[in-house]
Specification:
By secondary structure, the chain is mainly α. The chain has helices at residues 4-10, 37-54, 60-117, 121-147, 150-154; strands at residues 17-23, 26-30.
């Protein structure tokens, strides 16, 4: 169960993280920590197994009973660990799914932005031609005015 020496003295990790926004109104909760009962059950079974291999017990009947108990705990813990791995896998899948959707949305927005900012070649060529004609006309008028003098005007 919750509490005990592991949570109060051994576990130094953070608490789980409540709903994390993924975008478009979806979120995921990552609340699994090493203090999770399912992980603790696995740790307990492994610790019992270590006691069988290198523990202080030497009597065969004590070792046998401990080995049976450790084996039962391992089987129980394994099933719970698989369920936990499944939950984490579902959360990972949701995160990856949202990452793909966000990347696709970003690419679509970038394409739209590029299209909006891109100059229309026909329109640009037409405007450039009009400006060029205006400049040529201005140069022609300026050249004629620069040759104009009172003597030229009176002739």
């Amino acid at each position: 169960g919750a509490g005990g020496g592991f949570e109060s003295a051994g576990y130094q990790g953070a608490a789980g993280r409540g709903p994390l926004p993924l975008g478009e109104g979806s979120s995921v909760t990552l609340d699994t920590t090493a203090a999770d009962d399912r992980l603790r059950a696995v740790l307990e079974s492994l610790a019992l197994g270590a006691l069988v291999a290198d523990g202080p017990l030497t009597a065969p009947h004590e070792l046998g009973a401990l080995a049976v108990h450790a084996g039962a705990k391992m089987v129980e813990g394994d099933g719970r660990a698989v369920a936990l791995a499944g939950e984490i896998g579902v959360a990972q899948a949701r995160i990856e799914e949202r990452q793909i959707a966000n990347a696709a949305e970003e690419a679509a927005l970038e394409t739209t932005r590029t299209e909006l900012l891109e100059a229309d070649p026909y329109s640009t060529a037409t405007e450039l031609d009009a400006v060029q004609r205006s400049l040529e006309t201005l140069y022609t008028i300026t050249a004629r005015l620069s040759r104009l003098s009172l003597t030229e005007y009176l002739r």
